[in-house]
Amino acid sequence: MFRVDLNCDLGESFGRYRLGEQEEILKYVTSANIACGFHAGDPTVMRETVKLAVANGVKIGAHPGLPDLNGFGRREMNITPQEAYDMVIYQVGALQGFLTTYNETMQHVKPHGALYNMAAKNPAIAEAIAQAIYDISPSLVLFGLSGSELTKAGEKVGLQTAHEVFADRTYQKDGSLTSRNQPDALITDKEQAVNQVVRMVKEGIVLSQQQIEIPLQANTICIHGDREHAVEFAEYIHSRLAEHQISVHAIKEG
Questions:
Q1: What residues contact 110, with CB distance under 8 A and at least 6 apart?
Q2: Which is nearest to 164 in space by CA: 183, 188, 147?
Q3: In the chain, what's the furthest Cα-to-Cα distance?
Q4: Function of this protein (predicted)?
Q5: Do residues 82 and 72 make contact, with C-beta atoms less than 8 angstroms apart?
Q6: Is the pLDDT of residue 227 over 80?
C-alpha cells in the first residue's frame, strides 16, 4: 500500500477576522501548518489552533511567511538570505512557545506563499531557510515543493525532507506551480484533483499545463483551508485516497 501525509495551512485568521473551518478540517488531515503572525495569524489564533490540532491528534508544523498581512504573504519581497534566515528563526520560535505550553513537539516547517515559491527557485534563499530550520533542531522535517531548490537544500544540510505536491493547483513544465495570477492556477473540480493526486503518489508524475509529464516525488499533499468548500474537499480527498489503496499518515507517525 502507498502512504502519504495530508497537510493543510491553518491558523490564518487575524484578530476579529476569521478564515477557514479549522475544527472540521482537522478531522481529515494529518499535519497542520500553523501561521506564525507574519502573513497571517496572531498570538491568540496561534494558541487556539495549536490546541485544536493537539485535540485532534494532528502533527504540528510552523508556517513562516513574509511580513505582509495585506498581501497574505503572497507578494514577493526583495529579501536577503540573512533576512530569510532571521524570519524563519523568529516565526518558528514564536510557535514553539505555544507548543511548549501543551508539551507538544513540532514535527515540521513549511514556508508559506511567496517565501515558499522564492525558495523553490532561489538556491541562496532555500539554503538560508534550510539552515535556519536545522539550527533550531536537526530533527525537524522540511516541507518543500517536490524537486525544488528548497528540498535540495534541506537534503544537503541533513534535514529529513518531505517533497510536497498540491491537490488543488496546476503545474508548469518546469515543475513549478502555476502563478495564482493566472486563471487556471487552481483546480476546482474534485475528481480532477483526486486523479492528479493519485497519479502523483502512485506514478510519481504530474501533467503540466503544457501537457508535459513531469516527474516528482509525493511525500505530503497540501490542501488549502482557505478555499471554498475546504472541509468537503478535504473529506473527499481523504476518502478517495483510501479507495485507491493510499494510506494517510503524518510524516513522523509510525
A1: 7, 9, 33, 61, 62, 63, 116, 142, 143, 144, 164
A2: 147
A3: 49
A4: Catalyzes the cleavage of 5-oxoproline to form L-glutamate coupled to the hydrolysis of ATP to ADP and inorganic phosphate.
A5: no
A6: no
